[in-house]
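Section 5.1 Outputs to date
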Amino acid sequence: MADTRARVGVDPGKTLLLAWLVPGAGHWLLHRRGRALLYGASVIGVFIAGLLMGGLQTVSVYGHKWAFALQIFDGPMAIAAAVAHHLVAVGSQAAGVAADSLLRRLASTEPSQLTDLGMTFTLVSAAFNVLVIADAFYLADKPEDETA
């Protein structure tokens, strides 16, 4: 039996894409501003805390392929961190001297327990963002409540 109740009015696919691009943006689009700010700040804050603890190597395709497969759910910020780590790892001259020295300062040189903790934070951030994305998609796709 087909559901004939009205939908929220926002394309669930658009909500899904926005929620991946910027954590919390899917909820913002759905006019759930409090959730958007709370979820966005949580996901981004935990991700940045992980980067500050372990450096750019916490988001790396080289040694942690399966971890990066989850970190992709952090969106463009995870991809940007992985690209930055790649630039440092290969010593790319394309980024220029100033950018290269800045990236080298952000990259930790030696693995440590703090690096492992930083990776754990970035993974927790990604796992939480999966739930945030799913919630935004569900809210965009669910029928409006008829009693409201």
